[in-house]
Amino acid sequence: MQTDLLILLIPLLPLIGFIINGIGFRKVPTSLVGIIGALGPLAAFACVLLVFDGFTTISELGNAAPIRTVLFDWITVGHFNIPFSFQIDQLSLIMLLIVTGVGSLIHIYSIGYMKHDDGYGKFMAFLNLFLFFMLLLVMGSNYVVMFIGWEGVGLCSYLLIGFWNKNTSYNNAARKAFVMNRIGDLGFLLGIFMIMGAFGTVEYLEVFEQAAGFPVSDPTVVAITMLLFVGAMGKSAQIPLYTWLPDAMAGPTPVSALIHAATMVTAGIYMVVRSNVLYTLSPITLEIMGGIAIATALLAASIGLVQNDIKKVLAYSTVSQLGYMFLGLSVMGYTSGMFHVMTHAFFKALLFLGAGSVIHAMADEQDIRKMGGLRKYLPVTYWTFLIATIAISGIPPFAGFFSKDEILMHVYEHNKFLWILGVIGSAMTSFYMFRLLFLTFFGRFRGTEHTREHLHESPATMTVPLLVLAVLSVIGGFFNVPEALGGSAHLAEFLNPIFELSHKVRPEAFNETLLTHSEEYMLMGISSGVAILSLVVAYVLYIQRVTMPEPDTVDRPVVEKVLYNKYYIDELYETIIVKPTRGLSDAFYSFGEFIIDGVVNGIGWGVKQTSGQLRKMQTGSIGFYLFAMVVSIATILWLRFFIKF
């Protein structure tokens, strides 16, 4: 009973914060807004820790069964029932720790970052609501509850990306995110309908138990997994539904950290890992996923090489890293995919919050060409940003090295060509991240003298979350250290029960690694070596040679121009999708306005004119009325007896 109450409180506490700040955002004192906004996520994180402790204690006693809490029977049609219920198991606990832990730090950071904004209370309320829906998505025991959270985070992303709604471009970015996510969500919804038809239920445990009896590559399972993956492509920004995510930088920086690091964009990864049995039964879907994943990783990384907006670089980095996560899942490295979700949450949240600290100090300037030399003005921001940069670049012994290396090892076993492409992507990641670091924090200051005079380190509410995330970015990789390095895969051991059915339906696909320790050392050495080599190249270009990115007005070489303009994909979508759709809608509008409205208005005009003439017959003369009555009676009798119908 106590556990059920704690489970209920996890999503309820952020919701209470949303209600208080949301209803009273103009009345709650500014000093209380941040406390109320941050208290819900912090208390939810405490509840998660208590549930995690209780669950691990029970698991150690030999009972690793999921905890299922039914709140109420929601939809019942005949024998078909959908309860509103939560499921707590190893996977949901890992996600809950990430979402509430990193989410709490982002809420605390927001107190310092947004305190002087006119919509401070509303902003904190929206953050709380976002967290509430993300928790529903993670905790649901069936696909329908997941879908509620799935749609909820989409709605909140629209509200938060377009938070500064007086700016038209920000509103356009919010609308773009909303529309592109709806495209993916349609696929997800169709997948859920197919699950209902194929299994007669949407409960995870029942669906997966029945699915285990299906043959490998069953057409129904293939169709379901493809449709679910379309949903994941939208939410987790994979080709072709990725262009909304870089534009999402229009929102305040804490929003970027929340969406890009710990919550919304990882929803697709979570859904695939949760549905691992279905995907294990569908090798063709995994192959397609792998192709899309590596294409996304390389395309986004190459665009990031030449971007000059500090948040845009990080946005394309997120798209690229999500590609790596899906790449790991495509070779059934489900644990490695989740491991990278965890480490990415640490260092990417740190990078975005660090970027926010820079923007805060630079009076909202985001162009790295106007920065430089900031390490002496922002020492805490610099050191924490450096740690996150090393971590995301995959340089040992920081967190990103272990998770990215584990993905690349799984890929190497599966497909050597994909591994080569993955290593190339890793090299590009290291280059553009150190390019960003060097241009922002090293060299001479390139901003105005007025900006220089006001440079200062951020307040404690912003720097403390940076320090906590920096520590996690350093130690986060030690949860799953390879045996070759004398470590123990604690995360893999903890998540093993989630993948038991997958091991049963295709045991040959989960054979123990054939890599020797020497091969593992070789792979680690190559991935680390290319990352360090990219660091050196970036150092030579931007520190020794003091190379500066060109202004936008300068004509660039063809390749750089294509990369700088993001392969013109937004323009392509505008030409082949947006303009034709808008033209079609304008045509329908014109048809409705001139044809349908013309007919309706014409009928109305005719009735009006006819009635205007007929009313003149109302003269008040009794003799005329008697004459009209006789004529009418005669007409009726004639119609009745002489006209045959």
UniProtKB/TrEMBL annotation:
It comes from the Bacteria. One of its GO terms (cellular component) is endomembrane system. GO terms for molecular function: NADH dehydrogenase (ubiquinone) activity; NADH dehydrogenase activity; quinone binding. Keywords: Membrane, Transmembrane, Transmembrane helix. The chain crosses the membrane at residues 6-25, 32-52, 91-111, 123-141, 147-165, 186-205, 211-234, 255-273, 285-306, 313-335, 341-359, 380-399, 419-442, 463-481, 521-542, 622-643. Pfam families: Proton_antipo_M, Proton_antipo_N. The keyword Membrane applies. This is NADH-quinone oxidoreductase subunit L. It is a multi-pass membrane protein. GO terms for biological process: ATP synthesis coupled electron transport; electron transport coupled proton transport. InterPro entries: NADHpl_OxRdtase_5_subgr (IPR018393), ND/Mrp_TM (IPR001750), NU5C-like (IPR003945), Proton_antipo_N (IPR001516). Residues 74-124 form the NADH-Ubiquinone oxidoreductase (complex I) chain 5 N-terminal domain. Residues 142-429 form the NADH:quinone oxidoreductase/Mrp antiporter transmembrane domain. It is found in: Endomembrane system; Membrane. Its main location: membrane.
